[in-house]
Amino acid sequence: MPDPIEVRKVAIDSVTDASGLARLIDDGVIEADRVLAVIGKTEGNGGVNDYTRILADRAFREVLVARGSRTPEEVAQVPLVWSGGTDGVLSPHATIFATVDPSSAPVTDEPRVSVGVAMSEVILPEDIGRPAMVEKVAGGVRDAMKAAGIQDAADVHYVQTKTPLLTLDTINDAKRRGHDVVTEDTLKSMDISNSTTALGIAVALGEIAMPEAERIHQDLSLYSSVASCSSGVELDRAQIVVVGNVRGIGGRYRIGHSVMKDALDADGIWAAIRSSGIDLPERPHHGDLDGRLVNVFLKCEADPGGSVRGRRNIMLDDSDVHWHRQIKACVGGVAASVTGDPAVFVSVAAVHQGPSGGGPVAAIADLG
Fold it and tell me: Staple partner for 342: which of 23, 91, 209, 229, CB 3.0–4.6 Å?
């Protein structure tokens, strides 16, 4: 049985701020060497050249090295998954997952959060957007489930990944080795990397069968209800964090999930919160959460039909502000209105992650 999990959300007060993590360690809430993963939002542009992700990554890893006994090489293997872009009211923050001594955690036979992390095989530039990447991600997800002690895919409620995208350097590397790539548009490769990864998660969890190459990033009927996929320039393989529930692990936290059917589907967020074990009235208000919600994690996507609930929008036609930023701000506002807290995890590029035009939602509750 894996050790129980502590989950805490901390603010990021500047681009290189990791003081929230440092305080948790200094106050004895968690131990540096027990940190399993960090999932956070940084304040950059969310694009290929969003270096705030790298700055946050460095700051948090420096704290783990300085306050723990792991070497820099060992700390480098800890998945720190950063999603860039805090458009609208979204606020930079990080959610930290760490194991705790079982003797210090509440004992219960009820389902409680367990976390498994894994790194996939190296994903080559020519793999992105193709079945080879689907297979490598699926293998990594299965490894992470084993690490979490999760045997039934139905107990997985959230899979957060970070995968490589294409850059000019990696495109040229593939060409030098005699391979082509799925696209030479580096920003588009971000969406394709995310969508291919989501299919790998769906395959690993039995949500879909292995897709043919021509269905990747094309057949929007294929999706995972628990995948949240980000990509960036800072790694060459899939960092995978599987979060689910295990009976008997103990601890205070439980996770649940649902999906948003469209960008305005606040009910989908409330459904995820209810799934995490928080009792709510029929028409809930964020005041009903009473401090029990740790965080929600969402993916979002501009509806390819160019409308929401029958009303036309111009996100996909706007040449001034990319639709990534517009839909992120929109869904971030919806999520913050539900939780009463702008520090919510909302990430864009959700093809194959939840229904088309919507997205998956995971919620973690502190059940005391």
Answer: 91
